[in-house]
Amino acid sequence: MIAPKIDFSDREERLFFIHERYKCQYPDCGGCGSCNLPDGMPAIEMFADYIDGKVEYATIAAKLWI
Q1: 24-63: per-residue pLDDT in tens?
Q2: Contact criterion met (CB below 8 Å) for 15 and 51
Q3: CA-based nearest residue to 28, from 43, 47, 11, 10
Q4: CA-based, 20 to 30 A from 37: which of 5, 50, 63, 65?
Q5: Which of 22, 28, 3 minimizes the C-alpha distance to 13?
Q6: Could you tell me the pLDDT band of residue 64, with boundaries at 50, 70 and 90?
Q7: CA 19, CA 23: separation in Å to the nearest integer?
Q8: 57, 15 Cβ separation under 8 angstroms
Q9: Rounded distance, CA 52 to CA 30, Å?
Q10: What are phi and psi of 5, to 5 degrees?
Q11: Where are the domains of the chain?
């Protein structure tokens, strides 16, 4: 699945993408780590600006795995 662009999606679509892409169950997981992000941060928190429509997914993702 390709990340929905901010201009062509709503918050729910972006949130769904993050849940599916990272298998993130936050806040229910209690920090399970299944999303394998740096510092054990849940994907929902890491990509909060993307979900809220502030920064594109690729911009945030590129900073994670430089």
Answers
A1: 766 666 656 566 677 778 888 899 999 999 999 999 999 8
A2: yes
A3: 43
A4: 5
A5: 3
A6: confident
A7: 5
A8: no
A9: 22
A10: -70, 145
A11: 6-64
Given phi > 0 = left and psi -120 to 50 = alpha, else beta, which region is 9?
beta
Please name the residue that has the structure tokens 């510092």.
39
In the block, which residue shows the tokens 């054990």? 40
Q: 3-state SS of the chain?
A: CCCCCHHHCCHHHHHHHHHHHHCCCCCCCCCCCCCCCHHHCCHHHHCHHHHCCCCCHHHHHHHHCC
| Cα–Cα–Cα angle for 59, 46, 14, rounded to 5 degrees | 70
CA distance 65 to 15: 21
Give the pLDDT confidence score for residue 41 in this predicted structure.
Answer: 80
Residue length of the chain: 66
